[in-house]
Amino acid sequence: MIKKILIANRGEIALRIVRACRELGIKTVAVYSQADEQSLHVQLADESVCIGPAPSKDSYLRPDRIISAAEITNVDAIHPGYGFLSENARFAEQCEAANIKFIGPRAESIRLMGDKAQARRTAIAAKVPVVPGSDGVIESESEALKLAKKIGFPVIIKATAGGGGKGMRVVYNAVAFAREYDAARAEAEKAFGNGSVYVEKYIEEPRHIEFQILGDQHGKVIHLGERDCSIQRRHQKLIEEAPSPFLTKKLREQMGKTAVRLAESIGFQNAGTLEFLVDKNGNYYFMEMNTRIQVEHAITEEITDVDLVKYQILIASGQHLDLEQKNIQITRHAIECRINAEDPSRNFAPCPGAISLYYAPGGHGVRIDSHCYSGYSIPPNYDSMIGKVITYGRSREVAMDRMYRALSEYIVRGVATTIPFSRAIMRDPVFRASGATTRYVEEFMGRTPKEAWATL
């Protein structure tokens, strides 16, 4: 069994891993940049090591400094969380070379599914439906335009590397294609150091549905149901819920089996997520696989009573997965709102700075995952998410009403946040009627005056 873990991350996910380790009796080492010296995960870990200045490229994205910290503190394993190096196959290999367990899948699985074009080919080989599009990287604008005309507009241009909505452009006609093709490549090159792109048919008004999977080192793979992540802005998720109010029981079973089949085809180990687009007729298409824990893992935990982070650690320790597919029961409905230090009234402009007062809601059916506190200063160097509110109950209505109540209690002063925006969504008739697609946020903002957000 693993005795000591270094957490190669920051913020709420680092704190989440600390909590799981404490319940398992495992010692923890926090690494931090100079900007994160006062972060809560640093204060609660058993040990901490500074790995560099504020910029990610000089700290959290430096494998050499992280592995040096791991060797100095004599850890057994490294948990990468999400983002940063969590889907970096080379980092996983470096951990193994240093005789340190990487709490995640094998490097070859990360590499295979990390390249979206290769992941698409892998899905096709496993007889998993994919969106019509290119079979791999498109080498030229003329080739890309020819394919776009063949499959029909609108199309989406996607970077083969990375995620988070970077290097993605939706194009509705041939006139705009050249501009958007160049823009997608440039953004991908800047974000990931890889400007390669591919082209797919753009599915209009889809649902974004993802399936959580766990696989052990002995060939067993199961899924733990789905999450509906359709409410997003610029391809960044804002609100997630589980189970999806859109899926029928039959479609859920079918998609779950498809997700497991694809994971089994690559010998996947640890926690991962298969992401699909589902059209209004219930046709589903594989999008990508995230070979790590997800930001929104908490809602799956609350509807299945399975601690995913603990299972990540147990699987990395070589233990057999003691969960059976037939025994995974969805007993509740859960909703998660990401709380970002952004000002929705100013086009969601980031708002770093000092929190003068912080009060988190509580009560039955409310979970808060956050590293913030009164007096904490949000650095401008990283993602703007400062926490997550998760509410759950016996029905979707209960979870929605509980979320509205929790967001009404949540106090963060000193910086602007997305709390009023998320609270307004909880009262929106379209959301409450389960009508949200990936176009929902733009539509909501178009019909709901900003002045009304604080009063809804």
Structure description:
The chain has an eight-stranded antiparallel sheet with strand order 13-12-9-10-11-14-21-19. It has a five-stranded parallel sheet with strand order 3-2-1-4-5, with helices on both faces. A three-stranded antiparallel sheet has the order 7-6-8, with helices on one face. The model has no long low-confidence stretch (mean pLDDT 95). It has 16 helices and 22 strands. A hairpin with a 2-residue loop joins strand 10 and strand 11. It is an alpha+beta fold and 456 residues long. The protein has three domains: 4-103, Rossmann fold (3-Layer(aba) Sandwich); 132-201, ATP-grasp fold, A domain (Dna Ligase, domain 1); 207-453, ATP-grasp fold, B domain (D-amino Acid Aminotransferase, Chain A, domain 1, 2-Layer Sandwich). The longest helix is centred in the middle third of the chain and has 19 residues, at 174-192. It starts with a strand and ends with a helix.
